[in-house]
Design the sequence.
């Protein structure tokens, strides 16, 4: 199983977001990407789902927008994560009923 986590924030640098993710998942097999000036994505393989969700909950208490997903392939996990980020950003910007 692949777990995906996307972090979005307009003023926290991607370097900082990457360091946070590396610190959290340093014992896991992961792949880290910078998507643009505001977004970093990490894929984590074969992590216990509860441990991954614990990291998600911890990050949700910060001011960083995030989305997460799970799947048998990276793309499946990423689609779910992107949907959560987009929905949350739309709510924040008042674009959702």
Sequence:
């Amino acid at each position: 199983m692949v777990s995906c986590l996307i972090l979005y924030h307009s003023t926290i640098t991607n370097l900082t977001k990457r360091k946070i993710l590396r610190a959290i998942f340093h014992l896991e097999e992961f792949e880290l990407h910078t998507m643009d000036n505001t977004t970093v994505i990490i894929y984590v393989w074969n992590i216990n789902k509860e441990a991954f969700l614990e990291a998600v909950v911890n990050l949700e208490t910060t001011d960083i927008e995030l989305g997460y997903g799970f799947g048998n392939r990276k793309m499946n996990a990423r689609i779910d994560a992107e949907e959560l980020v987009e929905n949350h950003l739309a709510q924040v910007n008042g674009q959702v009923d």
